[in-house]
Amino acid sequence: QVQVMESGGGLVEPGGSLRLSCAASGTIFSTRLMGWYRQAPGNQRELVAIISKGVPVYADSVKGRFTISEGNAENTVFLQMNTLKPEDTAVYYCQILTNIPHWGQGTQVTVSS
């Protein structure tokens, strides 16, 4: 059994910052990648950023503003979000990919003045 849990969401004004955290627990033999996705109302869930072996890949919409990083503990990952825009408003989900994807419950990020 693998459980994934995100935290760090909240309400922030445009131009502000938030830091999201994710940790997976349970039996994990091998992690291929970790990533962050988001879903706004009426939209499909979209990839925000992924990281594998320390190498990050970002969606064009967040490149230069967001930073994904691996934690010191195994199967932990962070997403530093800077210069937030209203269009960043969404539920953010953490994914840990082993042989199958494992998803967290999501954390709400709202960017509004």
Give the helix/strand layout:
Elements lengths: L1 E6 L2 E3 L5 E9 L6 E7 L6 E7 L2 E4 L7 E5 L5 E6 L8 E8 L3 E3 L3 E5 L2
Parallel strand pairs: 2-11
Antiparallel strand pairs: 1-3, 3-8, 4-5, 4-9, 5-6, 7-8, 9-10, 9-11
- Helix/sheet category: mainly beta
The percent of residues in helical segments reads under 10%
Percent of residues in beta strands? over 45%
Number of helical segments with 4 or more residues = 0
Based on the structure, what is the oligomeric state of the protein chains?
single chain
Radius of gyration: 13 Å
Structural features:
four-stranded antiparallel sheet, single chain, mainly beta, 113 residues, seven-stranded mixed sheet
Structural account:
- There is one protein chain.
- This protein has 113 residues and is mainly beta.
- It has no helices and eleven strands.
- The strands form two sheets. Strands 2, 4, 5, 6, 9, 10 and 11 form a seven-stranded mixed β-sheet that branches.
- A hairpin with a 5-residue loop joins strand 7 and strand 8.
- The relative contact order is 0.33.
- The mean pLDDT is 96.
How would you concisely characterize the structure shown here?
The strands form two sheets. Strands 2, 4, 5, 6, 9, 10 and 11 form a seven-stranded mixed sheet that branches. A four-stranded antiparallel sheet has the order 1-3-8-7, with no helix packed on it.
